[in-house]
Structure formats: structure tokens, C-alpha cells
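quick one: phosphoric acid mono(formamide)ester bound model?
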Amino acid sequence: MRHYLQFKDFRAEEYAYLFERAAIIKKRFKNYEKYQPLADRTLAMIFEKASTRTRVSFEAGMYQMGGSVVHLTTGDSQLGRAEPIEDSARVISRMVDIVMIRTFEQSKIERFAAHSRVPVINGLTNEYHPCQILADLFTFIEQRGMDRRGAVDMDCLKGRVVAWVGDGNNMANTWLQAAEILGFTVHVSTPSGYEIDPQVAGVKNADCYKVFKDPLDACRGADLVTTDVWTSMGYEAENEARRAAFADWCVDAEMMALAKPDALFMHCLPAHRGEEVSAEVIDGPQSVVWDEAENRMHVQKALMEYLLIGRIG
Ligand code: CP
Ligand code: NVA
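yep, here:
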């Protein structure tokens, strides 16, 4: 049994397989072809933070694959009344086939997984957001490394430069893990006090990222420019301080002009136009944010298929 708690839980060749499967699963969906390998399987989704994309993509994806879904939040379950996470894991995992959790500390999802009889997927923690990066990489591959028949060329990621402009947060940490495994470099620019901690990011190879004081320098020559909200969920008390510190970390036309002419723009969403990104960029021709959001569903269907029934063919 495998869990998916952070990006580095899978090897490069497993990602190659998952992207191939995601392409097949997406094509079937687009052609209205029924594909229900998870009939009679149940996914429990536990949300301790808000969500739109993660909930809809997992829930719709599981139904499309023939399974069903149970949705729990802190407020409407015993999780909010201090039932130990270990006990919750023991009970929930006796009744369902797979669990997705969105919570605060990574240690919480690790404790759940340690007591779970079924695979556990990280749907975002303070430290990581692996399902989002899975979707982001698939979106990049669709744009730069996929032929018309849907064959995936993983080499399209090799040597690429991803500019990260903003908070050294869960998304940034996960980009670093992906860079280390798949062979590209992240150019990171954060305001001072909001840097990435490589220990928390969990990367060993210092070559997978470079730090830039000025976000303009981070964008120079990039193949992809990406950012995220100034204040992540759980950090709302720091909102005012962050608004002041992040004022120059807005991805705008000037930053995009320094990137490669065909550079893509990505944002995991939800976005705040006029804060971390200008409306011109997110709503402009280089932005692939809507494909990125849709692809959450296709990659997560491939992920659930892999965790529950293994390799097909
Ligand atoms: N990107 C993402 O995870 O969105 P939600 O918070 O809406 O799930
Ligand atoms: N970094 C953001 C991502 C939201 C999908 C957060 O954790 O709130």
C-alpha cells in the first residue's frame, strides 16, 4: 500500500506513468466515454481548510470513475471535538478505500497515514500541495511535451526554468521537490522573512533551485512564471504585515516580458488580481490557469487509479 503525502513519495518513472494515464483518462472524459474502474470504491475527503478546486476535482473525479465520496469537515465531524487523529484514521480507513486530507501541519497527515489501512492523499498541508504540482506539470507537458496522440515526453521538463515569485510556502516547497526529481530548476524570489526553508521543503540537491532578491531577476529567461496568494490559509493573522512585505511581488507584464517569449503563467488559484498577479497577466494569452485547474481532476483520477488498482497494462 502506498500513500501520497508529498511529491517525493513517487519516483520520476512513476510520474511518467501517471502523466500517460492522465492523458488517456482526460481524453476519455472529453469523448464522453464511460470509464469506471473504481466502481464500489469509496473516497473519504477530510477538509480542515476551505476548498473549491480540490473538493470538486476529487468528488467529480471519483463519481466519474464509478465510486462514491464521503465529505467530512472539522466542524461537522468529531475531528473538531478533539478525537485523536490516530483514532479517526483507524475508524475511517475501515470503512472506505482511500482518503484525501486537507489540513494544517504535515505531521497530522503523517500520523493519519501511519494508522490508516488504506492509501492517504495530501490535498494540501501547510508544508506541501503535491496534487497541485502534479496538475501543473501535466499542464506544462500538454503545452510543451505531448504529441497529438497523447504520448508524453518527460524530457520536455529537463533543464527548464520555473520562476517562483512570492511566498516560500507549500506550493514553493513542492515545486522544489518536483525540480529535484524531474530535473529542472526553480528560480525563487520571496520577500525577506518569507524565504524557503530547504529543510522543510525536503530537498537535498542545492542545484534544484536558485534564490534571487529581485523578482525581476528570477523571471529572466524563465519557461514558466508562477505565484500564489500572499497569505495562505492558516496565516490570516499575518495578513497586514504580508500585504506590506509582498507589495513588489506581483507578477505583471514587466516580469513576463523578462521571461522567455513563449513562457507560460500558472497560479494554483484562488487568485487576487492586483496583489500577487495583475489582471493583464492572469487573464492574458500566456496564462494557462483554467487548464491547470481542470487538470487537477484528470491527474487525481490517474493518481487514485494508481493507488487503488496499480498499473494498468
Ligand atoms: N488550488 C487549490 O487547491 O484550490 P482550492 O483551495 O479551491 O481547493
Ligand atoms: N498556498 C495556498 C494555496 C491554496 C490552494 C494556501 O495554502 O492557502
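Residues 124, 169-171, 228-229, 232-233, 268 surround norvaline (ligand 2) (CB under 6 Å).
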